[in-house]
Design a protein that fits this description.
Strand content: under 5%
Largest sheet: 2 strands, antiparallel
Mean pLDDT: 92
Radius of gyration: 20 Å
Order of helices and strands: HHHHHHHHHHHEEH
Number of domains: 1
Number of helices: 12
Low-confidence stretches: 333-339
Structural class: mainly alpha
Strand order of the largest sheet: 1-2
Number of strands: 2
Length: 339
């Protein structure tokens, strides 16, 4: 068995898990100014993800660790060349996490408003920049013979990359709003369904444009099929939302994001970092991977650890599966603020 191939798709699977799970976290955070009519509404929104947001973020930590261990050359080129965007993502995630912890510590409206702003920005910035980063990985960047990035930050802000950023931004936003409809009761639930319909139409236009561009650049049968699947699943999500089938809508949105990520990884394969200036400088799964022994050890560790991660995450979602409404929010104390 070719373990380099296996680990390429394992890393793809972990990024799918991260974008699906933390994606709706980002969407809920971005929805605060649209669905949070007052402080109680905003507390309801935050509490929909309160028990799970930090667990969802661990997926990107594990994905990064796997990337470092399995493909150290890819990791080195990515984190050196994309240093500024990845640093901005890290800062945004820190600000968002701090806001969840400190927002409820004082009663002043100005205090809460500042942390609400940090939650919104800390959700929107990663949602946009992850799309920019992955679009650049698929499109390719200028690399020298040592596989070092030799471009500038402007080389990462191409029309395709910016469209990729808008695609993930809108996908996560709609995904989060559908999650709010799934997890809440009362007026906010209805408003979330209405907003999901409106944002979903914008998302569909942007996502189809990005997927079409990707297919034009990478005309392989697998990429075409996955792109069509992503578009179809997005339509299914929008129809289910209109029909008030929140569970189906949420599952379809999750599948849409998974299909989009698979489309990008399939377009990338077998490269992991194409060099647009000279194809011979490209990083592939072969010249970027660790030794066979390292991959074998990692495979045994993953075989033991990944099922435990999935079981624990599934148990967490089952425990906190009930819907939340304004009635669950205390009048004067943030007793349900995320810990």
């Amino acid at each position: 068995m070719d373990l380099t191939l296996v680990w390429f798709w394992i890393i793809a699977a972990f990024f799918i898990g991260y974008f699906v799970l933390d994606g709706f976290d980002f969407g809920v955070g971005m929805s605060l100014p649209f669905l949070g009519k007052d402080d109680t509404d905003r507390r309801v929104l935050i509490n929909t993800i309160g028990p799970v947001w930090d667990l969802n973020e661990t997926w990107v930590i594990v994905a990064g660790a796997m990337l470092f261990a399995a493909f150290p050359e890819w990791y080195a080129t990515l984190f050196s060349g994309f240093y500024l965007p990845l640093l901005l993502i890290l800062i945004a995630l820190i600000l968002r996490g701090v806001s969840f912890e400190y927002r409820h510590q004082r009663p002043e409206k100005a205090w809460k408003r500042r942390f609400d702003t940090m939650i919104i920005a800390g959700s929107a910035v990663p949602a946009f920049l992850w799309g920019v980063a992955f679009a650049n990985i698929v499109r390719g960047v200028p690399l020298n013979a040592n596989h070092d990035f030799i471009g500038s930050i402007l080389d990462l802000l191409t029309p395709y990359a910016l469209l990729g950023g808008l695609t993930t931004l809108m996908l996560f936003f709609t995904h989060g709003i559908v999650f709010v409809a799934l997890k809440t009761e009362g007026d906010i639930r209805g408003r979330a369904r209405y907003l999901a319909t409106r944002s979903g139409l914008i998302t569909a236009v942007i996502a189809v444009a990005f997927l079409t561009w990707t297919v034009v650049d990478h005309r392989t049968p697998v990429v075409i099929v996955l792109a069509l699947a992503a578009a179809t699943l997005l339509v299914c999500a929008l129809v289910a939302n209109v029909l008030n089938r929140e569970g189906v809508a949420f599952a379809s949105m999750a599948a849409t994001i998974a299909a989009v990520v698979l489309t990008l990884f399939s377009a990338l394969f077998p490269a992991v970092m194409p060099a647009i200036n000279n194809p011979s400088n490209s990083l592939t799964i072969e010249n970027a991977s660790s030794s066979a022994y390292t991959l074998e050890v990692m495979s045994w560790i993953a075989l033991l650890a990944v099922p435990l991660i999935l079981i624990y995450q599934g148990w967490t979602y089952w425990v906190f599966r009930k819907r939340i409404s304004r009635a669950h929010i205390p009048e004067e104390a943030d007793a349900h603020a995320p810990a």
